[in-house]
Structure formats: C-alpha cells, structure tokens
Specification:
Shape: elongated
Distance between the termini: 90 Å
Radius of gyration: 32 Å
Amino acid sequence: MKKNKTTIIITLIAMLALPVKSALAVNLDSTTQKAHQHLINQYQVINPLARTVINVKPLPATLENRRCEAPISFVHAPGSSPRVSVKAICSRPAWTIFISATVEQWQQIVVSSRALSKGTILGDSDTYLREFDLKRLTSPYFSDPAELVGREIKRAIASNQVISPSLVEKKLLIRKGDLVYIEANKGAMSIRMTGTAKQNGSLGEQISVTNTRSGKTIRGYVKSRGIISVSRH
C-alpha cells in the first residue's frame, strides 16, 4: 500500500510539472522571432493602415542558440528599401549579431480603371482601389479616390496604372473675377443669383463669391463651370 502511495505521488508531481515546462517553452522565443516582432512593431507604427509582412532570414544554429542572460535589444532604422538589417545586442555576455529580413507593406491605393487620355477630367468611375506593396513603389500615390475627382489628366495613363500627383492637376472651372451663377435650394425651389468669384476654384472646392445685388460675400461650392452652389449637394 505504501509503495502504491509513493507511485501515485510521483505520478502527480510529474503531471503537475508538465504544464509548467510547456509554459516556459512558449515564452522562450528565438532571437529571430524577437527580431521579427521588433520589426513588425516598428513598421506598423510608421504606417498603421498597411498590412505589414516581415520575413526574417534564419540564423545558423550556433548564432540562434547563443546564450544571453539579459533581454536582447534590437536596433534598426526604418528606410524605404524592402531589404533590411536589424542588430541584436546582448549585454551579458556581450555580443552583437546582424539579422537580415525583408519588409512588405501592402495598402490599397488609387489606380486607373481604364486607359485615360490627356485632358480627361476624372470622375468616380475612372479610378478604383488596388492593393500594392508600398516598398516596391518609387513614386507618390493617392489613397483616397475622392481626392482625384475633378482633376485633369496631364498626360495619357494606361489602364490599372498607379496615379501619382505628377500625372494630374486641378482643373479650374472658375477663375477669380469670373461672373458666376449662385444657386440656392429651398425645398423644391431653386433660386439663382449672379455674383463675382473672388477666388479660383475647381470642382467641389469651396470659394468666396460676392453677390451682385446685395454686395455681400458668401461661400459656395463649385458645381460646374460658372456655377456655385451654397449647399454641398
């Protein structure tokens, strides 16, 4: 009976020890895993809207298993290149190793939905959002299609092409000093007055206009060439 009790106690101790050992193993991340998390944290802060993908090059076993009795610190200065190097530093015992990795940051940006000729005034249907790795882009981009509505194409653009700021310009529908119509809607009624533009304006922009009859200056949105609306829609 005594022998059986001893066996049961030993068995229970062994069973209780297993979860502890497993929990410790989960917390003992490798150096490359820690470097991976460090890079993820850095690049997500830089661009929280992007889907960040980090691929860390495996270390040789002799470096991966190098002993460190203090928390390993990492040093990396983010840049535009997709290929990066992060420095892992141990203070006790003192050693430093460099870890190579690649960085991808995927985000939806504005591209052309069809071939667009020079002089085209962009509308809602002319663009759409498509996911790109920003690390592979060499020019600026737009992330909001609404920013491009009303802008004019400066030179021909192919279908599915990233639209950069250098490819478009604001199309002025009203120039300072132009005689314009001011529209005001009240329910089903629409009132139209004349005025003089005090600013240049492109589609959707809000500009100042002087009412010809009252002499008062009001603010209105450019609706089309020569027409200002005091309401947004």
